[in-house]
C-alpha cells in the first residue's frame, strides 16, 4: 500500500507539469499486436484525459496494410522506410488506416471510458500534403537521382482548428496519417512524420513515439537513453539507423527543432509505456534533446 502511495507521489510533479498541456502519442502498428497491450495503451490515454492532459493520438498501421495487400495479392515495397504507393495501394492504405485501424483505436479508447473521435487528414483539411520525392546521392560530380515513390506525401500544413476545439472538450482525437493535396488528391504519409508535424503545430509539451524496440539502439545493439539532434544526424549518416527508424528519428529531430519541449522514442511492448515515460523519474526509451554542449551522451544496456 505504501509503495502505491509512493508511486502516486512520484507522479505528482509530472501530473502538474503536463496538466493542461498537449501530449501527442504516435501509436505504431507494431505496438498494436497484443490485446492486453492495446488495453493498457487505451487506459493510459483515458487516464491522461481525466487528469487534465490533452492527449492526441496519431496511429500507424504498416503491418495491417501489409497483410491486406497480401490478401489482394500485392507486394509491399519500401524505400528508406516509405511504402511505394501506387493508386491501388493508396486505396488499400486509406481503407485500412482511416477505416479499420482508426475505428479500432477509437472503439478501444471508448471501451475504457474515454470519448475518442477518429479523423483522417482529410477531415477539416487537418493534414495538407504534397508529393514526397526521395533523392539518391550519386557522387559530388553528379546530380542526385530522384526516386519516385508514388502517392507518398509529406506534410505541408496542419490545420489545428479542429484539434483546438477538441482540446477544450472531453474528446480525444485519433488521427490516421492520410493527407490531402491541393487538388484533393490523397497521400499516404508515414505516421511518425504526421505525429511530429501535429506536435509542432500544437506546440505540444511532449511527443511520444511508440515502437517495437527498446528505443534507438547503437551499432552494438545497446539502448541510447539520450540523443542530441547532432548525434542523431550522425547515426543516420553512419547507417546505424535503418528502415522505419530513419523517419522516426528524423521526425523526432524536426519536432525538437520545431519547438516541441520533449520527444521520446519508447518500447510499446511494455505495458503502460506511456504512463511510465510521463510520470516516473527514470522514464524509459530514448529521449531526443536539442543539444548537450558539455556532456557525452550516456548509454545504458538494453534489458
Ligand atoms: N538503430 C536502430 N535502433 C532501433 N531500431 C532500429 C534501428 N535501425 C533500424 N531499426 C528498426 O526500426 C524499427 C522501427 O521502425 P518501424 O518498423 O517503422 O516501427 P513502427 O511501426 O513501430 O513505427 C525497429 O523494429 C527496428 O527493426
Ligand atoms: C509512406 C508510408 O510508408 N506510410 C505508412 C503509413 C502507416 C505507418 O506509418 O505505419 P507504422 O507507423 O505502423 O509503420 C505505410 O504505408 O505503411
TrEMBL record:
Name the site position(s) for Transition state stabilizer. 26, 248
Q: What is its EC number?
A: 2.7.2.8
Substrates-to-products reaction catalysed? N-acetyl-L-glutamate + ATP = N-acetyl-L-glutamyl 5-phosphate + ADP
Q: Name one GO molecular function term.
A: ATP binding
Record keywords:
Amino-acid biosynthesis, Arginine biosynthesis, ATP-binding, Cytoplasm, Kinase, Nucleotide-binding, Transferase
Q: Which SUPFAM superfamilies match?
A: Carbamate kinase-like
Query: Can you supply a Gene Ontology BP term from the record?
Result: L-arginine biosynthetic process via ornithine
* Pfam families registered for this protein in UniProt: AA_kinase (PF00696)
Claim: Kinase is one of the keywords in the record: yes
Protein family (similarity comment): Belongs to the acetylglutamate kinase family. ArgB subfamily.
Task: Give the matching HAMAP family.
Answer: ArgB
Q: Report the protein name in the record.
A: Acetylglutamate kinase
What is the name of the gene encoding this protein? argB
